[in-house]
Every structure is written in structure tokens, then in C-alpha cells.
Design brief:
The chain is an alpha/beta fold. The chain is 37% helix and 16% strand. Strands 1-10-9-6-2-3-5 form a 7-stranded parallel beta sheet. The protein has a 3-stranded antiparallel beta sheet with strand order 4-8-7. The radius of gyration is 18 Å and the shape is globular. Bound molecules: 2-phosphoglycolic acid.
């Protein structure tokens, strides 16, 4: 794991934007896995700025979101489709027909959505870079604790704590969904690269358990220890409970030194 500890959430956003810029320079038609929630918003703002002010383009990019609420229609302001339009898609040059979420149409059998989503991801060549946030309980996507580490896109029941954490987005609690369709853990692990963002002290336990704890379905993000190419960008509050903090800083110092050395050669 490439563990990068930065001062604050703005630095996390900037570093995340740099990862994407590099990827799009290497592959214009990249396939991105995207996340919703509070954490990636600042990074998406950077993507929008880079798209307007530099030559960065999403014209050939395809995106797959991690999850969508079940029973919430795309036009609904609380849907993750609406979030993505608001935060990103409406402000960049992406072809909107290449943006996918695991949404279930009103007349569709929800059990059909997962296999179809998996097939579409494969058709598009698989995900080059998957952006992830992390729940306070260690969930990635809506893969709540106890999710099979080998799961695929499917319906999940949300935990009480996740419902509580997302309550602020629903004026009427009675309309808040308790079910979602989410990429599975195996779906996420298929991505060629993973970019996990974590900001704020509320994530410190989840970050510690996922990076330094045992691999366990009780902390779903801990499976990322098994992935070959993971970058974790976090701010200091999110990193505050890590035991090997000094080592992670030391590694990044070494990397900077090697880079500087190569540039001066
Ligand atoms: P957050 O959500 O970015 O709103 O904290 C992250 C998550 O639940 O995966």
C-alpha cells in the first residue's frame, strides 16, 4: 500500500486530482470507478477546474459508480445519480451516456441489476482506477461489515450506523432508503488501481483497522491489503490512530528523495 498522510482535506483533494491527471495522460479512454459521499467532493471540484483550465479531458472516459439507493429514482435529488450530476458530470466534457450507476428502474427486477452491471464493466474493459471513500465502520461502497469478501454487485441492507450517518441528506427520515445496490468487494478488487480517500478524525478507527488490522469481513476495507496497487490518501486527523505513522512518513520522504535524485541526474 502506498500510504500518504497529508496535512488537510484540501491537500488530499489536490493529490487525488494529480493521480487522475497522470492516469488520463497515460490513457485518455480510462474507465473510472467513482464514489459519492462527503469525502470525494473536494477532489471532484479539482477535476472540474482541471478540465476547464488545463487540457485534461473526460471526452473518452467511462465511469461506473460504486452504488445507488434502491427505490430512489435517478431524478430524485437524493439519488447518487443526482449527486454525480451536481458534483461532477454537469461540469465536465464527459459523454453522459458513458456514465453508469447500478440504478434499478421502477419496472425492473432489482436482482437483475447486479449481474448486468458486472457484465457492462467487463464489456468496457474493466476499471482502471477505482475511487473509494471509507465508512466509519470500514465499509467500502455499501459493503457493510460481514459482507462477503468475494461479493459481486448486489442488493445490500444498510447498517443502522450508515443510515444514521446519511440521515442529514433526507428531510423526511421516512423516505430514507434502507437498501442499496452496491458493487461487491470482489468487483472493487478487480480494479487495476485503487485510490482510497479518508479525511477527518471520525475515520481514524476505520483507517487503522483497514491498514494495520487483520483482514476481516468485520472491516471490509481491510481486504485492500490484498490488492497490488492501492494508494491511500488521508489527512492527519484520519491518520491519527495509525501505529506506524513515523514509518509511513519516512517512506514518503524516501520516495521524494529518489524522485529528486532522478530529476537532478
Ligand atoms: P463520506 O462517506 O465520504 O460521506 O464520509 C464515505 C462512505 O461511507 O463510504
Amino acid at each position: 500500500m502506498d500510504i500518504v498522510i497529508l496535512k488537510d482535506s484540501e491537500q488530499v483533494a489536490t493529490a487525488g486530482a494529480r493521480v487522475l491527471q497522470k492516469l488520463l495522460m497515460e490513457k485518455k479512454a480510462a474507465v473510472l470507478g467513482l464514489a459519492t459521499g462527503r469525502t470525494p467532493k473536494a477532489m471532484y471540484r479539482q477535476w472540474v477546474i482541471n478540465c476547464r483550465e488545463s487540457s485534461m479531458s473526460f471526452r473518452e472516459v467511462t465511469t461506473f459508480n460504486l452504488d445507488e439507493y434502491l427505490g430512489v429514482q435517478p431524478a430524485d435529488v437524493q439519488s447518487y445519480r443526482s449527486y454525480m450530476q451536481r458534483e461532477l458530470f454537469d461540469h465536465i466534457d464527459i459523454d453522459q451516456t458513458n456514465t453508469y450507476l447500478p440504478a434499478c428502474a421502477a419496472d425492473e427486477n432489482p436482482l437483475d441489476v447486479g449481474p448486468r452491471y458486472e457484465a457492462t464493466i467487463l464489456e468496457k474493459g474493466g476499471i482502471d482506477c477505482q475511487v473509494l471513500g471509507i465508512g466509519q465502520n470500514g465499509h467500502i461502497g455499501f459493503n457493510e461489515p460481514s459482507s462477503s469478501l468475494n461479493s459481486r454487485t448486489r442488493i445490500k441492507t444498510l447498517t443502522r450506523e450508515t443510515i444514521e450517518s446519511n440521515r442529514q441528506y433526507f428531510d423526511d427520515p421516512a423516505t430514507q432508503p434502507e437498501l442499496a445496490i452496491t458493487m461487491g468487494i470482489a468487483t472493487i478488487m478487480d480494479a487495476r488501481k485503487i485510490l482510497l480517500l479518508a479525511t477527518g478524525a471520525a475515520k481514524a478507527d476505520a483507517v487503522r483497522q483497514s491498514i494495520e488490522g487483520a483482514i476481516s469481513a468485520s472491516w471490509p476495507a481491510s481486504i485492500l491489503q490484498m490488492h497490488e496497487r492501492v494508494t491511500v490518501l488521508m489527512d492527519e486527523p484520519a491518520a491519527s490512530k495509525l501505529e506506524r505513522l513515523d514509518y509511513y512518513h519516512w517512506v514518503q520522504d524516501q520516495k521524494r528523495r529518489v524522485l529528486a535524485q532522478n530529476e537532478s541526474d
